[in-house]
Amino acid sequence: MVGGGVIQQLLRRKLQSQSVATPVLSWLSSKKVKEEAGSAGFRAFALMGAGITGLLSFSTVASADEAEHGLESPHYPWPHDGILSSYDHASIRRGHQVYQQVCASCHSMSLISYRDLVGVAYTEEEAKAM
């Protein structure tokens, strides 16, 4: 596109130097410049319209996706909520008991060592008994 514009300018200069082609060249170049300006304006308008349409369609998809998830869950003040907070020993024991009674039939605990629970939720004797 840029190369064509340079070639067109060189041809225009060459033909302007010749006396016979000057009126025809000026008429053609003025008509072509007007067409190019209108075409460029239409292209810019079309690109802007496509961009706005894309943004609007993306925003409606995002809002529809949020609507699928339902209501947002309420925030409860958990005692272990925070950077330096941790679970208490009783809740760890309850969780392990639920695992043994419900989850252990299908899920293994092969990646967890019982020695990691010593001092946190169980004593050494209780861990050995498991």
UniProtKB/TrEMBL annotation:
Q: Name one GO cellular component term.
A: membrane
Cofactor(s) demanded: heme c
Q: Which residues bind heme c?
A: 103, 106-107
Give GO terms: molecular function aspect only.
electron transfer activity; heme binding; metal ion binding
Cofactor, how bound (note): Binds 1 heme c group covalently per subunit.
> Which BP terms does GO give this entry?
mitochondrial electron transport, ubiquinol to cytochrome c
The record's keywords, sorted A to Z, are: Heme, Iron, Membrane, Metal-binding, Transmembrane, Transmembrane helix
Identify the Gene3D superfamilies for this entry: Cytochrome c-like domain (1.10.760.10)
Q: Which InterPro entries match?
A: Cyt_c-like_dom_sf, Cyt_c1
Would the keyword Methyltransferase be found if you checked this record's keyword annotation? Answer: no
Compartment annotation: Membrane
Primary subcellular site in the record, as a coarse category: membrane
Q: Which PANTHER family match?
A: CYTOCHROME C1, CYTOCHROME C1, HEME PROTEIN, MITOCHONDRIAL
What protein name does the entry list?
Cytochrome c1 2, heme protein, mitochondrial
Per the UniProt record, the source organism is: Noccaea caerulescens (Alpine penny-cress)
